[in-house]
Amino acid sequence: MKHFLPLTSLAAAIALATSTHAAAGTERVINVSLPLGPDSQQGIGVLKFGEELERLSEGRLTIEPHYDNALGAEREVVEGMGFGIIDAGIASTGPMGGFVDEFMLFDLPYVFENHKHAYAFLDSEHGEELARLAEEGMNVKFLAWMENGFRHNTNSVRPIEKPSDLEGINHRTQESRVQVDTWEALGANATPMAWTEVYTALQQGVMDSQENPLATIYDVNFYEVQDYLNITQHVYSPAPLMMGLDLFNSFSEEDQAIIIEAAQIALPVQREASQELEQRYLGQLEELGMTVTHPDLAPFREAVKPVLEEWAPTVGAELVDAAVNYKY
């Protein structure tokens, strides 16, 4: 079911798209939406993409990044690209399961063991098939499987050493039914909430807990409103770089190839930066006062097995099996 843009975001996006598409000649500025800032793992990847795009096109194609959800929340941006009112963007896959069931794979807990496992799967024919489904179901073109990284729990109640420690904690999830089931299986009170509302909800005590990659936890200053960082590594979160499919198809074949090449050059740069930031921010978050725990993950994996069993038929049992058992 489609969820339409709020009028304010829609009006701003239409005005932006109209002014951009009105440009004459072969030069083109591509507006790119990002949930985070320029120094984040997302910003590093998008800026590298822009640098390579300008180089390969000899200055004809450039980007204008729009940071910190300036063009709307992630679901709105994905819809906006599909409708042709937002050029391009990087977004987590969390909201995409509402459009294409197979994307709920990335909401399922403990599918990927480590970065190499995730990269090998995404860079295989399975990633290509998911990108094709995105074209059909969301009208967007995947340019590169960039990443947010592995997600970890933070909260303001207690350190999490075992699943029962989550009992009674009000936990924010992305707008994903799978994530709600996962956190309820772990004992938390799970509530889906738009990304733009999360910090305030934690600050005001409406929510006790959230989960995100370490770089994101640092980038949005969650350490100011959360006391405990728990290395749960429960979900691997891609952040694909996308473009509206109609816009992509409007480019010449030569420029389409340039766009893809620029994104693929930026991909390993972004992934490497993401891993480096994970390690850097783990230390910095502890220095900033967060209590860090490294729980034994086996009980967590066991607790969420019913979630995988329940959702495998919806996501696609063969796809889930391929991801969990992918050889890398």
UniProtKB/TrEMBL annotation:
> Which UniProt keywords are given for this protein, alphabetically ordered?
Signal, Transport
- GO CC annotation terms, alphabetical: outer membrane-bounded periplasmic space
Q: Which GO terms describe its biological process?
A: transmembrane transport
> Which branch of life, at top level?
Bacteria
Leader sequence range is 1-22
A Pfam family the protein falls into: DctP
Q: Which family does it belong to?
A: Belongs to the bacterial solute-binding protein 7 family.
Name this protein carries in UniProt:
DctP family TRAP transporter solute-binding subunit
Source organism:
Vreelandella glaciei
